[in-house]
Amino acid sequence: MGARGRLDGMNGRVKSAPYVIVIGAGSTGAAIAHDLTQRGIRVEVIDRGGVASGTTGHNQGQLHSGARYAASDPESARECMAENRILRKIMSGGLEWNGGLFVGWTEEHMAYLRTFLDACGTCGIPAREISSTETLRLEPRLNARILAAVEVPDAVFDPYRFCLSFLATAQQAGALLRTFTEVVDLDPSQGRVTVECHRTGKRENLGADLVVNATGPWTGRVAALAGARVDVEASAGVCVTVGERVSNRVLNVLAPPADGDIIVPLRRTSILGTTSWPVADPDGIPVPDDHIEEILDMAESMVPGVRASGLRGVMASARPLLVLPGAGGRAASRKFSCIDHAPEGVDGLISIVGGKTTTARAMAEKAADLVCARFGWTAECRTQDMPLLSPRLGVSL
Amino acid sequence: MPDAGHALALAAPRGLAVSRPVQLHIRRTGRWADYRVEVREGASVLEALEEAWRLDHSLLFRHSCHHGSCGTCGMRINGREALACLTPVAQAARGGRPVRLEPLRNFPLLGDLLVETQQVAAGIEAVGLPIVRDADRPDGHPAEGSPPEQYENCIECGLCVSACPVVGSDRQFTGPAVLAAGGRVAEERRAPDGLAAMTQVSGEHGVWRCHGAFECSEVCPAEVDPAALILGLRGGVFRRSMAGGRK
Fold first, then answer.
1. Of the candidates A1, A200, A369, B238, which lies 20 to 30 Å from A123 by C-alpha distance?
2. DSSP of A334-349, one letter per residue?
3. A265-277 burial string, b = 16+ CB within 10 Å, else e?
4. Mutating which of B64, B86, B110, B118 best tests the A interface, going by the most A Cβ atoms within 10 A?
5. Alpha carbons A251 and A204: distance in angstroms, whole number
């Protein structure tokens, strides 16, 4: 493929390098922009809104150790742990590394303990059973009737700043970011991306050698603009934030993933969640009152008195779930897939579906591998060891 | 009420049992525009704005976390700086009045409610305030073992900069957000570069330029209390100059 992109303003990028437009400035798009620029590819990121204004922004902020998925989805669990270790190296200073606890207080939870520990062991996730006494000393707000607790290397991230770290690093390497710019038409085989800039009201055709569709639950909709098909399930979830930090660690219920079973402390707040139900439209997801109540009830059983901390915020967004035969909602995999649409007759478009913010870097590596393969561009992924810049250096507009 | 360029439209209710009609009166680039939307009881101003956006994607505003952590949805709501996500629409629309939304002051305006606040983040970075550090435990927690890490309280939203009367009259003034960050660095005993941060904020456009209007602390959504930090910083700078015989 020849370079069709605009050649100006690329801060010394090799002008013969391919020009890639990444649609979506959430965690996936930001990480892809970083990976591609490090490989010498010229990148422009486009989003119809601001940075992390979709699914990523409305995130509970749990950086997974993988323990949550160890029993049900070992592959995702291993991947989470691997990425957790990498982010410790490259994003130091931007994450709270206080760890996580899985706590049980019923016989049912106790019955799951052995399965859970074995699964963590199999997946290589450091999991240490600690006594109730020690647990309550570490987290005194926990339900005093807890019977078991397991410490795992979960952590907390600030979703907006997570994206800005990747974008700041990409921008320094020459990537461009256009926010408030909506893709209205897409003809990847002609290298044409038609956008409407909401700041100027103008329509414009942008040129690209390849388009990467990283729009989370909107991936199907964006692919459809090009006549391509992506099966992605938009699975909505509600999070409830209370105005008090009730723990220092991420608190999880010692049970298979269910609704409302996680408390994530972020700054002086605690984010409780979440629920899961399929929605047809990822925009404007209604917040059902009963979900708020259900989440507060569940959190209250883990941390008595949390309800009294006062409601600070409620958010709803849709996870992009990869559709696999016979599994949906909680049973669906958090795996991801990179799809080259060329075999279905839409050349020049790659979509990335599924996954989660914890594994954004790994998703970007796979997507960038595919992009490079398309161009015959030989460049190794360097993002595993490369420290990211401070999110404060990212220009989000 | 200014009425040029009204764009009145009614959003489809979301099919929830309880909904509240709200009128947003928004300062857009060069005009005012009104939007009528319906939101759930208990919704924030941000949720109402998102409903308006569903009618009109050209409406420019930032948002991300919806719980006051990212600091992107700062604006003036009924004339006062606030985060849209932490402002209940019921409070802003008391008595059924339209909710007046304007962009933050003292920042480059990019359109509608969109302003460029990156100077705040860049200034705080230059002063050397860590984003995450070992922090005090929440009340009642015994401090033992490795101290837990916590994000700094300041969310770098820029509300204080918009509310500050001095920034409005002296564009060279360092401003409350960066001064407060300097104050945090200086008061952190473990930080080796506390003095460097002080030097950076002690110039003629730094701590001494503050008039003590306290507007910054009034509008801060994160309990940073910039005014108190600036006063503390003045004390530190003064003591240091006395001790070192410097000006």
1. A369
2. --EEEEE-GGGT-TTE
3. bbbbbbbbbbbbe
4. B64
5. 48
Residues of B in contact with A313 (CB under 8 A): 44, 65-68, 85-86
CATH node for A99-156+233-319: 3.30.9.10
pTM as predicted: 0.92
Give the CATH number of domain B118-244. 1.10.1060.10
| CATH tag for B19-115 (out of 3.40.1010.20, 3.60.21.10, 3.40.1160.10, 3.10.20.30) | 3.10.20.30
| Domain boundaries A19-55+160-231+334-393, CATH class | alpha beta
Q: Which chain B positions have a beta carbon within 8 Å of A52's beta carbon?
A: 64, 70
ipTM (interface predicted TM): 0.93
Query: What is Dmax (Cα atoms) for chain B?
Result: 70
| pLDDT tens, position by position, A44-95 | 999 999 999 999 999 999 999 999 999 999 999 999 999 999 999 999 778 9
> Does the CB of B15 have a partner CB in chain A at under 8 Å?
yes
B12 at interface of A, judged by CB pairs closer than 8 A:
no
Q: How confident is the prediction along chain B (247 residues), in pLDDT tens digits per residue?
A: 333 333 333 333 344 446 899 999 999 999 999 999 999 989 999 999 999 999 999 999 999 999 999 999 999 999 999 999 999 999 999 999 999 999 999 999 999 999 999 999 999 999 889 899 875 544 434 445 567 888 999 999 999 999 999 999 998 999 999 999 998 888 775 555 556 666 677 778 898 899 999 999 999 999 999 999 999 888 887 777 777 644 4
List alpha helices for chain A, DSSP H: 27-38, 74-90, 107-123, 132-138, 159-172, 219-225, 289-302, 360-375
Q: Which of residues 60-89 of A touch B (CB under 8 A)?
A: none
Q: Can you name the residues that pair with A42 across neighbouring β-strands?
A: A19
- The interface residues of chain A toward chain B in range 104-163, judged by CB-CB distance below 8 A, are 137, 140-141, 158-161
B-contacting residues in A 15-34 (Cβ below 8 Å):
none
